[in-house]
Recover the amino acids of this structure.
């Protein structure tokens, strides 16, 4: 099965689970991007968006539908946070902005690293390493003042592990380390917690 089909199936499982168990998060998911938006983002970034991320963005363009404009900046809404590690699924505009910020920040951020998820309150998140030399870009976890760590072999693996965990099939080691995380919902709010303290 192709990675693209795996992504579509896993994402369908995730959005179905959110709709049934945490609908406020499902409501924060945007409709899919169109091809023109993706092409424009690639031009701005001067690098190619990998096929697997393209497939995901065509399904849904991030989880930012409830974000609020304050001054010149959009502030992430708490409902946009539902990916493992309590991360926001970045929309195309945010992918470009975060990518530019990381490139310009003086950090050793190669142009082949494409961010797709980030915490709303800190510079931590996930990126695809499109320069890894493999047919599928590995998912890496990044944190401020730390070397990136391999989190998953591919975006399909990341989404399948997320779907499995949401559906009650074990935990997820989502932050590039050995710590196991599980989802916990309270009053319709989903948060990821260390397995030993998750209900």
């Amino acid at each position: 099965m192709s990675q693209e089909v795996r992504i579509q199936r896993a994402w369908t499982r995730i959005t179905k689970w959110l709709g049934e168990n945490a609908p406020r998060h499902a409501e924060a998911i945007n409709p899919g991007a169109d091809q023109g938006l993706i092409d424009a983002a690639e031009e701005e970034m001067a690098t190619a968006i990998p096929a697997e991320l393209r497939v995901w963005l065509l399904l849904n363009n991030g989880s930012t539908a409830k974000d609020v404009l304050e001054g010149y900046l959009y502030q992430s809404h708490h409902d946009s946070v539902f990916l493992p590690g309590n991360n926001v699924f970045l929309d195309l505009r945010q992918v470009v902005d975060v990518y530019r910020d990381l490139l310009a920040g003086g950090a050793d951020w190669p142009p082949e690293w494409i961010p797709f998820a980030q915490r709303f309150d800190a510079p931590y998140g996930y990126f695809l390493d499109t320069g890894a030399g493999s047919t599928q870009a590995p998912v890496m976890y990044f944190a401020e003042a730390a070397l990136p760590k391999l989190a998953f072999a591919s975006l399909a693996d990341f989404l399948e592990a997320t779907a499995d965990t949401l559906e009650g099939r074990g935990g997820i080691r989502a932050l590039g380390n050995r710590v196991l995380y599980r989802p916990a919902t309270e009053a319709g709010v989903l948060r990821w917690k260390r397995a030993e303290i998750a209900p």
In short: The chain has a mean pLDDT of 90. Residues 2 and 156 are 9 Å apart (CA to CA). DSSP finds six helices and ten strands in the chain. The longest helix spans residues 3-21.
